[in-house]
Amino acid sequence: MKILKFGGTSVGSVDALKALIDVVKTNLDKQEQMVIVVSAMGGVTNQLITTAENAIKGIDFSEALADIEKRHFEVVKALIPVQQQNQVLTKLKLFFQELEDLMQGVTALQELSPKTRDAILSYGEQCSAFMISRILKTIHEGADYLNTTEIIKTDSTFGNARVDFEQSNFLIKNYFEHHKDSLIVATGFIASDDQNRVTTLGRGGSDYTSAIIGAALNVSQIEIWTDVNGMMTADPRRVKKAFSLEELSYTEAMELSFFGAKVIYPPTMIPAFLKKIPIVIKNTFDASFPGTFIKHDIKPSSTVIRGISSVDHISIINLQGSGMVGKAGFSGRLFSLLSREQVNVVLITQSSSEHSITFAVNPEDAKKAQALIQQEFELELQAGKLEPITIEHDLSILAIVGENMKKTPGIAGKLFHALGRNGVNVVAIAQGSSEYNISVIIYNSDLTKALNTVHDAFFAQLQKNLNVFIVGVGNISKELLSQINAHHAYLVENNLINIKIIGLTNTKKMLIEPAGIDLANWQQSLDESTEPADLNKFVSEMKSLNLPNCVFVDNTASPIPSTLYKDIFKSNISVVTCNKIANSGDYKQFADLRSTAQKYGVDFLYETNVGAGLPIITTLHDLIISGDKITKIEAILSGTISFIFNNFKGDVTFHDVVKQAQEKGYTEPDPRDDLGGIDFMRKILILARNSGLAMEAADVDLGAILPENCAKAPTVEAFYQELKVSNDYFEQLKKDAEKQGKVLRYIGKLENGKASISLQAVGMDHPFYALSGSDNIIAFTTERYCETQMVVKGPGAGAAVTAAGVFADLVKVGANQ
Ligand SMILES: NC(=O)C1=CN([C@@H]2O[C@H](COP(=O)(O)OP(=O)(O)OC[C@H]3O[C@@H](n4cnc5c(N)ncnc54)[C@H](OP(=O)(O)O)[C@@H]3O)[C@@H](O)[C@H]2O)C=CC1
Ligand SMILES: N[C@@H](CC=O)C(=O)O
Ligand code: NA
């Protein structure tokens, strides 16, 4: 035998009830014996509460009751054959007559006692259970109605009555002993006290009813039929990647449902746990969902936590003062007071010095709790032994839950790392001594971000989302977006990372789509955007979206975005950039950006600042952190100039080779930056700084390639013109080198704290002689690499290799989350 419990939505409409009939039929076909427990039709309990509360004030209730009646009648008319409808409608009318009498009593007395309230609410379940029993009669002759006030006995705590299991078990067994062949449809939620007055089992109590009956009858399974796919790893309205749990233990289910997951009423677990009866949560509206199983002997979980629960709105109350230290009875007095006055305490944390206690309550109880405490501890407050009691609002609880957490080190570290890295401020912390749960109190405004980031951190086998905002959509970004688009499926399929481009801007338009911009059409979407570019607004919208794992990418050559990096770091957002400006400006700014990123626990990655995608910054960093000392760096770091000297051969003019370099995407947006040596100077400066030298741009001894007329050309067009004019100059340089069997190379050197860049003619014996295309080469001489240098060589400019370097930096940020 098993129990099938259907919640409000599952009995709330004709379509839902058709699905219910299908579920019951499937079980009948399998000759399953079952007891059905139902809630009131969805929304009816709330309607009854409002109507009763209005009735106290004398507000007319007839329309509201007629409304509820109509919903039941519509179902009867749709699902019961005409000739059988009358008898059902008559009984329902009788229920509504009794309900009306009760409401009249409320109006007359201008009072709604908990006892009357329970009696009124019971009609929600009575009507639905009776109606459904008659609907099921159309498919099974033995279908019958049971009012559980006859079989579940409780004390007289109206609204949240305590079950007398001894009596109830006897009555339940006895009843079902005499109804072996019936298909019983029982009311959830309601019971009665020893004077046969109606009591209720708390909101969500229908689940509890099913466990009480299930445990008494020792059934094989309790099925909770609801409108979602079971218990999930987190609230799916806030965490898109939340997924349904296959199974979990009773304790885990209890912890998860205590904070938030409203799928099952926590007390339900106890009778089932004691009898080891599995509970299965099923979806009435999705027959393909196999269910979430809550049971003993679950498979070992592959993740350390089972799920994350959350409570949206709570307030905290803080008590502190010397009067609490060492006073054994203090907490006892405090919490018995709150319990006596029915203030539900959701979470408690106490400092080990016993100097302060913080506890969380529902916001509607906060003022009441404060007043009660003030009254109770008046003397202590007056004597200054207790400081004024403070309340904080607009908070949420996030709790990670799982039995595997027990005795597994590093879990709290992971939780706080994820929260800290994303700038989520933790207001208070609590861990149950069972180690099944770590709860943190955070601001409401951070809840969605926190849930997503913690979900990503713990369910690591799932790929993490990286939310990316890109400024600049030129040469490099176009290629980057196309690479991400092409490689996205691979990254997702291999559970590595899900890169979402949320924002794009150039100097004309901007586009922000929180769900992610479609990369197949990004250009069109940006062109069609009606939002004019405004970098400050772009950044402030990025911050206010408050997305987890967020990265700002600067793919411009402009100095403006770099003025915003510091502020971006302070919002716990990482920066990835191929723009060299921030790192080659004032040394103070460079140092400040590095330390700010470090302080806020975010990444500042700029591998492409030197040698495009070649691993140069990373290599330098690895040498230094592993304790090596850089003694010399020799390098060719201008892809453009390398290309020019590798191709300035035969009849081709210098002007034409420079044009080719620009067309191939090797040059800076302004090629004068390359040919004038500024770009190279920036790179050698960045290397010097990353080697630990506090060097400024003016400290680099920069040898020129260009004659003065070219170097001083006021525009790019004029520059090209001057290159033509100076053709003989460049030809002569080339010939002089060729005469000696040498080639021209623009070489940078960093040694003894000094940096220089100069044009040299080098022979075949020189390691930099044999280069092609836009090759860069960098030779590190270090204490460890002293006999033979460590050399990195390869194409050091071009959209494809640069975008690839930015892409790799993005994936690194993702991996660090
Ligand atoms: N080419 C290469 O091999 C390498 C290049 N880099 C670096 O890559 C960077 C980008 O180069 P590249 O793609 O060729 O440059 P592009 O000129 O092709 O693109 C620059 C983009 O930045 C936008 N932009 C400029 N200023 C702003 C601003 N203030 N606000 C918003 N958007 C702005 C431009 O907008 P709009 O279109 O409206 O003008 C354009 O979309 C440079 O810093 C360069 O040093 C680094 C390594 C190698
Ligand atoms: N314009 C640069 C591109 C890489 O930083 C170069 O030519 O090296
Ligand atoms: Na690089």
UniProtKB/TrEMBL annotation:
It comes from the Bacteria. InterPro entries: AceGlu_kinase-like_sf, ACT-like_dom_sf, ACT_Aspartokinase, ACT_dom, AK-HD, Asp/Glu/Uridylate_kinase, Asp/hSer_DH_NAD-bd, Asp_kinase. Pathway: Amino-acid biosynthesis; L-threonine biosynthesis; L-threonine from L-aspartate: step 3/5; Amino-acid biosynthesis; L-methionine biosynthesis via de novo pathway; L-homoserine from L-aspartate: step 3/3; Amino-acid biosynthesis; L-lysine biosynthesis via DAP pathway; (S)-tetrahydrodipicolinate from L-aspartate: step 1/4; Amino-acid biosynthesis; L-methionine biosynthesis via de novo pathway; L-homoserine from L-aspartate: step 1/3. The keyword Transferase applies. It holds the Pfam family ACT_9. One of its GO terms (molecular function) is ATP binding. GO terms for biological process: homoserine biosynthetic process; lysine biosynthetic process via diaminopimelate; methionine biosynthetic process; threonine biosynthetic process. Its EC number is 1.1.1.3, 2.7.2.4. The keyword NADP applies. Its cofactor is a metal cation. Keywords: Amino-acid biosynthesis, ATP-binding, Kinase, Lysine biosynthesis, Metal-binding, Methionine biosynthesis, Multifunctional enzyme, NAD, NADP, Nucleotide-binding, Oxidoreductase, Sodium, Threonine biosynthesis, Transferase. Residues 319-391, 400-478 form the ACT domain. It catalyses: L-homoserine + NAD(+) = L-aspartate 4-semialdehyde + NADH + H(+); L-homoserine + NADP(+) = L-aspartate 4-semialdehyde + NADPH + H(+); L-aspartate + ATP = 4-phospho-L-aspartate + ADP. Bifunctional aspartate kinase and homoserine dehydrogenase that catalyzes the first and the third steps toward the synthesis of lysine, methionine and threonine from aspartate. In the C-terminal section; belongs to the homoserine dehydrogenase family. Homotetramer. This is Bifunctional aspartate kinase/homoserine dehydrogenase I. It comes from Pedobacter aquae. The gene is thrA.
